[in-house]
Amino acid sequence: MKIDTLIFDMDGVITTEEKYWACARLTFWELVTQTLDIADAFGDAVHDEAVREAVVSDELIYTLKGRAVNSNWDITYVLACVYLSGIPGATVFSAMNVPDFLQAIHDTMDAKADWPNVLTEFLAETGGAKGRALVQEAGNRLQKALNFNGEDLLRVDGPFWWYLHACFQRWYTGEAMRELNAEPLTDGTMLPAQQIEATLKTLHDRGYKLGAATGRPNDELYDALGELGLMEYFDPQRLGTLDVVRDAETKLGLSGLAKPHPFSLLRAVYPRAALEVLVDEEFQKLKRNNVVMVGDTTSDVIMAKAAGCRVVGVLTGIRGEKARQERLALLEHSGCEAILDDVTHLPDWLAGQEDGQDSDGGNLTP
């Protein structure tokens, strides 16, 4: 079956993750230096970009991404939990809410954590864990380190996770930056916007259906693509966003449908399908050789394979030759059909593809 549908991850493929990474770093910085009042842990990460990037190195973020931690909110949660677990003397026997929990840590701690060594140790100790399992391991580590008996407070998507999420969004929306008289954080593209637009226009004009499977919520996706003048090339019905995932989880009474689960990709491929069909394991296993997922991380590859789709990796979204080679190795090991330098090479790759075998996508019309 001929390729007719292209589903893109956004961050690291078309848009940059710099703003998200900055928000993760600033949320973590705020927790440590402001909420816990460990003023000497880091410098002024708000007004000094170099200090901000030193709070958590690119290399450690790449490592988490390579372990299928796709959501930047999850990354923030891991950073916070692991740091708190490494604070000497900190103990919390019980807490009714997050402010009480953090106050107890503040009142019992003896010194700052050995950062980033405590994170490096955590990643080494959990070598086999990936995705949400790795994220929850961070919460489990913190619970154990503090002798804390409030498991629900520290579960993924629990009160502490949402507390950090709210802090993250204050940085993302610019509210926190304005309060501190700092320059706003901005979105951008992995390549000059004109090159991205020319590529998407070429694909659109050739008749490919373009969609997205992304961890961004609707408004953040629409705002970014709208500001960059790229929204017109995407089918608005084929956007598998975080809001789409959360709505499905609520309606179906399920959890765990975010990347690398195949739901957001399948929703982009089958915008009119019933939710129950898209979460059916037998349906997910069907081969869809007409669909190519374009991504930059192992989460994208895992998701695509779970959805029976073809997958092409790109080497954007990373800085430095060492990180590039490590990402290349990860994508090769994950099983990408092809690995391109960036999305501008996608039209030529597609032009060189022969028709694949017919795929059984069920009775649904993509």
Task: Describe it.
By secondary structure, the protein is an alpha/beta fold. It folds into 2 domains: 5-15 and 189-351, Rossmann fold, CATH 3.40.50.1000; 18-179. 51% of the residues lie in helices and 8% in strands. The protein has 19 helices and 6 strands. It has helices at 18-35, 49-55, 58-66, 72-85, 98-108, 117-125, 131-146, 151-154, 159-173, 175-179, 193-205, 218-227, 242-252, 263-269, 275-278, 281-284, 298-306, 321-334, 346-351, and strands at residues 5-8, 209-213, 239-240, 288-295, 309-314, 338-340. It has a 6-stranded parallel sheet with strand order 3-2-1-4-5-6, sandwiched between helices. β5 (309-314), α18 and β6 form a beta-alpha-beta unit. α1 (18-35) packs across α9 and α4 (72-85) packs across α9. The longest helix has 18 residues, at 18-35. The protein is globular. Mean pLDDT is 93; it is low at 355-363.
Keywords for this entry:
366 residues, alpha/beta, Rossmann fold, 2 domains, six-stranded parallel β-sheet, 8% strand, globular
Cα-atom radius of gyration: 21 Å
Largest sheet: 6 strands, parallel
Number of strands: 6
Task: List the total number of helices.
Answer: 19
How are the elements arranged and paired?
Elements: E1 5-8, H1 18-35, H2 49-55, H3 58-66, H4 72-85, H5 98-108, H6 117-125, H7 131-146, H8 151-154, H9 159-173, H10 175-179, H11 193-205, E2 209-213, H12 218-227, E3 239-240, H13 242-252, H14 263-269, H15 275-278, H16 281-284, E4 288-295, H17 298-306, E5 309-314, H18 321-334, E6 338-340, H19 346-351
Parallel strand pairs: 1-2, 1-4, 2-3, 4-5, 5-6
Helix pairs in contact: 1-4, 1-9, 4-7, 4-9
